[in-house]
Amino acid sequence: MAPHDLRRPFKRPVVSDQQKRRELSLFRQNQNRRDAQNQARCLASTVLSFPNQPESPFEPEDPEPELGPRDIDIRQSSKLRGPEARRWFAKQLMLPEWMIDVPDRLSNDWYVCARPAGKRCFVVSSNGITVSRLRNGSLLHRFPSALPNGSRAKDASRSAQSYCILDCIFHELDQTYYVVDMVCWAGISFYECTAEFRFYWLNNKLVETSACDGPSRYHRYRFSMVPMYNCDHEGMQTAYTGPVPYVRDGLLFYNKHAHYQTGNTPLALVWKDENCSQYVIDTDSKGQIPHQQQVVLELQDDGKLTTYDDPPVVFGFLNGEFIQKTELLAGNLLRFSVSEGGLVFADGKLEKADLQYIGKVNRARAFADSYSKVSKHLKLLHLGFCFSLISLMARFKLQLILYVRRSRNVMLF
């Protein structure tokens, strides 16, 4: 056979959209260096000084100038109000995408943990007090703690530079803050450090304090680390089915090389199914799954309806007449039901969406759905597909390949 007749008997596998975003995120974090110390100081000051936000369900929202999370200094951020404040706080957390494919080198480059059910929040200790705030900026607790400079105990550090910022989930049943990540410890910023180093440092430093002890006069709530495992068969099985002291709400995956990236990132992933979470599909106020699945999108200046992604995914648009009639404003978060036309996906990308407008969302909500969340929920609900993460890695990847193939070029609903 002539050399030019030699052909590969198979096509090169398609690189998923989520995998491309992962590679882009890793590239960006190596190219874009920022002043991490100022970023941490700004966040700590804002969490401590920000007034409590009332959470009236539906109040008219006044248009406010759009500001990015990095365009606000300490004085400005502490003066933000309403939807702009919620949007600013929402962009400070590192938010995982929903897992819709298996990352390359999963067993080598990723951690996995059992996610605690509860309220995601920032915890900041500084100036002898500890404050926790939800991702919409609302005050959760103000209390003394054993974190650096977190109480007015006699032996506590009083240095204004000795502050701490932890990314936590507050678990109501045992009144415990479960620490999933760290932004700053004793005034040292960890934004630019890899997840592998952040978790190592946090494990050592948290144990050195008495923050993991039970409540006391100078330490009202207990803190606890969420155990992280390598994504091999044993680690995934332990995270998926092993005993935990809290209610399990899915699995969290962290890329070991990822910096603490604010906003949605494909370098952190969440997986939920009926075996590891009570909240696989969004429910209504009564806890029931709606007849038609719903999505929340953000209205842009040009009428486009987009997800909370970078870059955002466009699901459709509203014409000017409808916007004027309903008195909608750019930045409003709007709820839609997915109608009979459903969603059309091709090669993992959205081609068509048949949406029915329902109304504005509760104003306490800070951001729209991500594309991965919408895609994941709709596939789980309407294809009835669910695979087990505790199977062998080869089987795990095979099942997901079959899942993706079944999902392509299919009109849902």
Structure description:
The structure is a single chain. 26% of the residues lie in helices and 27% in strands. The protein has 413 residues and is an alpha+beta fold. It has two domains: 18-46 and 98-271, 2-Layer Sandwich (D-amino Acid Aminotransferase, Chain A, domain 1), CATH 3.30.470.30; 294-407, Beta Barrel (OB fold (Dihydrolipoamide Acetyltransferase, E2P)). The longest helix is centred in the first third of the chain and has 15 residues, at 17-31. It is globular, with a radius of gyration of 22 Å.
Give a short summary of the structure:
The protein is α+β, with helices and mostly antiparallel strands and 413 residues long.
SSE blueprint:
Blueprint lengths: L16 H15 L4 H14 L24 H6 L2 H9 L3 E5 L7 H4 E7 L2 E8 L2 E6 L4 E5 L20 E8 L4 E10 L2 E2 L5 H14 L13 E4 L3 E2 L2 H9 L6 E8 L7 E9 L22 E6 L4 E3 L7 E4 L2 H7 L6 E14 L2 E12 L10 H13 L9 H15 L6
Parallel strand pairs: 1-12, 7-9
Antiparallel strand pairs: 2-10, 2-11, 3-4, 3-6, 4-5, 6-7, 7-8, 11-12, 13-14, 13-16, 14-15, 16-17
Subcellular location: Cytoplasm; Nucleus
Organism: Escallonia herrerae
Protein name: Snurportin-1
